[in-house]
Amino acid sequence: xxIKSQKDFWxxxxxxxxxxxxxxxxxxxxxxxxxxxGPAYFPFGLGVLMVILGGMxxxxxxxxxxxDGDPVGAFAWRPLVxxxxxxxxxxxxxxxxxxxxxxxxxxxxSALASxxxxxxxxxxxxxxxxVMSWAVFxxxxxxxxxxxxxxxGAGT
Length: 156
Known about the structure:
By secondary structure, this protein is an all-alpha fold. The protein has helices spanning 6-25, 41-63, 77-97, 99-111, 119-140.
């Protein structure tokens, strides 16, 4: 069988493999029931949905004709590294610097991965995300998240 869309083929295969890994990995946990779901309930369901979605994308890659085979382009290493570093820094710095400093740093650093980066948009995005995160997680859900650096007190 001929692959008619390389991008769809590889993304479908990726979804299929990750979904299968989640579904198989969740089999070691208790499922519970619909009224009281156990720890395996959500990852198994999500894994099965990902397998179904991956199968659909994979089927489309083998059946839908594309003019040039829709080849996979060069791998974008720069954005990948920037995003991974930003997320790792967020996890490391959040308990030390608090959400009000760490979240804007994450947003601005992550925005650097884009070729369309502008400091104005990054600052606006950082402000909105920080305020919304504070409202949802600290005020709405009552989670204990450090808001200020530890040298200024707990800040929650």
